[in-house]
């Protein structure tokens, strides 16, 4: 089980990303547009840099929904590899069958 503080910090990051998403998108569009003047581009870059570090979606960690484990997660199920195996063998995941050949 992951530390509760780590899981909570990740949830706060998700909220920050959601809060700043629209403004980040606007600034990124200004920066990427080739028709933008150099002054406007540099101003947009400065505004983007002044945003909180946690506003960047890269900083959000994919965590297991059950344990909060940050590594070895399967996106489709939202579980770590360990929880996935336990639930699959117990028959708690629909459509998942142990391979045999």
Note down, in words, how this protein is organized.
Helices cover 51% and strands 4% of the residues. The protein has helices spanning 4-32, 38-50, 81-90, and strands at 73-74, 79-80. It has three helices and two strands, in the order ααββα. A two-stranded antiparallel ribbon has the order 1-2. It is elongated. The mean pLDDT is 95. Helix 1 packs antiparallel against helix 2 (38-50).
What's the topology here?
Layout: H1 4-32, H2 38-50, E1 73-74, E2 79-80, H3 81-90
Antiparallel strand pairs: 1-2
Helix pairs in contact: 1-2
User: Unreliable runs, pLDDT <50, ≥5 residues?
Assistant: none
Number of strands: 2
The portion of residues assigned to helices is: 40-55%
Compute the average pLDDT: 95
- Class per helix and strand makeup: mainly alpha
Taking the sheet with the most strands, its summary is:
2 strands, antiparallel
> What count of helical segments does DSSP give?
3
Topology as a string of helices (H) and strands (E): HHEEH
Rounded Rg:
20 Å
* Distance, first to last CA: 34 Å
Order of strands side by side in the largest beta sheet? 1-2
The oligomeric state of the chains shown is: single chain
Portion of residues in beta strands equals under 5%
What is the general shape?
elongated
């Amino acid at each position: 089980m992951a530390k509760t503080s780590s899981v909570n910090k990740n949830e706060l990051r998700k909220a920050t990303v959601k809060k700043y998403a629209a403004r980040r998108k606007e600034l990124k569009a200004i920066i990427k547009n080739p028709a933008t003047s150099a002054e406007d581009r540099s101003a947009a870059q400065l505004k983007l840099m002044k945003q909180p570090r946690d506003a960047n979606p890269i900083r959000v960690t994919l965590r297991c929904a059950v344990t909060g484990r940050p590594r070895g997660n399967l996106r489709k199920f939202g579980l770590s590899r360990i929880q996935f195996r336990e639930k699959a063998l117990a028959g708690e995941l629909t459509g998942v069958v142990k391979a045999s050949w």
